[in-house]
Amino acid sequence: MMGSMTDAAYDLIVIGAGPVGENVADRAVQGGLSVLIVERELVGGECSYWACMPSKALLRSGSALRAAQRVPGAADPDARVDATAVLRRRSSFTSGWEDTGQVEWLQSAGIDLARGHGRIAGERVVEITGEDGSVRRIEARHAVAIATGTTAAIPPIEGVAETDPWTSREATSVTDVPRSLIIIGGGVVGTEMANAYADLGTTVTVLSRGGLLGGMEPFAGELVADALRERGVDVRTGAAIASTVREDDGSVAVDLEDGTVLRAEHLLVATGREPATKDLGLASIGLEDGDWLDVDDTLRVRGRDWLYAVGDVNHRSLLTHQGKYQARAAGDVIVARATGGEVDAGAWGVHAATADLAAVPQVTFTDPEVASIGRTAEQAEEAGLRIRVVDYDLGSVAGASLHADGYTGKARMVVDEDRGVVVGATFVGQDVAELLHSATIAVVGEVPLSRLWHAVPSYPTISEVWLRLLETYGRPTA
Ligand SMILES: Cc1cc2nc3c(=O)[nH]c(=O)nc-3n(C[C@H](O)[C@H](O)[C@H](O)COP(=O)(O)OP(=O)(O)OC[C@H]3O[C@@H](n4cnc5c(N)ncnc54)[C@H](O)[C@@H]3O)c2cc1C
Ligand SMILES: NC(=O)c1ccc[n+]([C@@H]2O[C@H](COP(=O)([O-])OP(=O)(O)OC[C@H]3O[C@@H](n4cnc5c(N)ncnc54)[C@H](O)[C@@H]3O)[C@@H](O)[C@H]2O)c1
């Protein structure tokens, strides 16, 4: 019946071939379903071409150089990164903005690809508009998964849209390093790009309406701001922007409420994301165009038993690793529901993205790095937990002082006193990113503090901060 109205049918249609869509499709194929994935730009999504990979490639050389410069005898203390080499390495990670490799992977995984813009055209039907304007209607026998991600939000500041600002896309795909750059937004993108461009030799100003890295432990943003200022970045917290304008000479002027006028070659807006759901046909099934999609813990859109929303677009956690975690659960549960298999959707079940709720790890690749998992002290208190906060100066750990002269950093452990487990941890310092997974395991595993004393960190590593945190908390008695 439905088939006669459509051009083809698949068990599952995935709209959006970012990291999340690819993983939903892969799990479903592995579970025996036929899957079509629809992509309007590059297979691999934002993360591969304009977000995670190029931004980290832009940051890595500066971090490596400074790490060497902090150890006498390892590097010329006055050396600067070679911007041309950094950009070349960045472009190798984005494969020159070509997706041939990822398309080959889809083929090898048994996932069919349709190039074009996907839109929901009623229950279990997706319409695909190709670049040539042709339209195909495809039936989804079991489910449709939306994994369309986000786009940069343009802030409602007078003049910004007309200024034709850079977003994260231009910032990560740059070919000519600007002499000067003003960044609006002191979140993750703003601070990472401030680090990257300062290293590339750009004069950088960061305008943040609050402190940097809001939502994390306050000391994280403070230590990152200190380090940026030391490297010559003009970090203005509590900045109120009145308007922006593109001058006749091509430069950008930003007027602050206090009367200050700042100028730069480019303006970067890094003020958050909005869901890519404006032109997705949501209204055809009674949902609101342009909204985030509200899902349950199995990533199913509430009230629609055939529709899933996975990754950034559901607003649970705007991170690649967390989106891929959701994708594994979603792909598997779609298979289970399609084949009459058992659904394991309770807390920490195979089909539930439970970690999204209070166990999300994140690394901000600034220098110092910020690595966090779970709840901050403030979030734990808001959740009504009876907590104790334990802080330790990372520079006092033997491994850290060996790692870099003048090592500066801080660690915080948030303990749920009623359960005797860690519910949050934050590390700020050079090379703490790889330390984070130990904390993730402690939080997700709900490892009692009394048992953590038996998890002995090697001497002399930075991980010994765990022992120092436990000692500061106090050793249990028999
Ligand atoms: C500058 C920057 C740096 C970041 N760095 C990190 C990091 O280091 N680590 C991390 O974990 N996260 C990072 N993130 C976040 C990360 O990029 C996202 O969480 C991730 O890309 C989300 O994946 P996704 O598959 O949900 O969406 P996306 O990667 O956005 O992919 C969505 C895909 O859907 C396609 N699409 C959209 N609408 C349609 C349609 N109607 N029809 C067909 N196709 C469509 C898009 O073209 C795109 O390819 C960063 C983000 C930014 C902006
Ligand atoms: N390393 C990583 O994991 C990484 C790196 C980059 C981005 N990301 C993800 O991408 C997402 C987007 O990052 P982002 O930095 O754009 O968002 P964000 O939410 O982290 O920060 C946005 C900042 O813009 C400010 N802001 C918002 N509206 C404003 C306005 N009108 N005027 C002035 N300031 C305004 C906010 O106060 C905030 O400081 C994040 O949620 C993050 O999870 C992750």
From TrEMBL:
Query: How is the co-factor bound, per the entry?
Result: Binds 1 FAD per subunit.
Q: Which GO terms describe its biological process?
A: 2-oxoglutarate metabolic process
Q: Which residues form the FAD/NAD(P)-binding domain?
A: 10-321
Q: Tell me the first and last residues of the signal peptide.
A: none
Cysteine-cysteine disulfides: C47-C52
Any idea which positions bind FAD? K56, G118, D312
Q: Where does NAD(+) bind?
A: G185, G186, G187, V188, V189, G190, T191, E192, G272
Which InterPro entries does the UniProt record give? Answer: Class-I_Pyr_Nuc-Dis_Oxidored, FAD/NAD-bd_sf, FAD/NAD-binding_dom, FAD/NAD-linked_Rdtase_dimer_sf, Pyr_nuc-diS_OxRdtase, Pyr_nucl-diS_OxRdtase_dimer
Gene Ontology molecular function: any one: flavin adenine dinucleotide binding
Q: Which domain of life is it from?
A: Bacteria
| The Pyridine nucleotide-disulphide oxidoreductase dimerisation domain, residue ranges | 360-466
Q: Which residues form a coiled coil?
A: none
Q: What cofactors does the UniProt entry give for this protein?
A: FAD
Which key words are in the record? FAD, Flavoprotein, NAD, Nucleotide-binding
Q: Which family does it belong to?
A: Belongs to the class-I pyridine nucleotide-disulfide oxidoreductase family.
Q: Which PANTHER family match?
A: DIHYDROLIPOYL DEHYDROGENASE, MITOCHONDRIAL, DISULFIDE OXIDOREDUCTASE
Spell out the protein name for this chain. Oxidoreductase
Organism equals Arenivirga flava
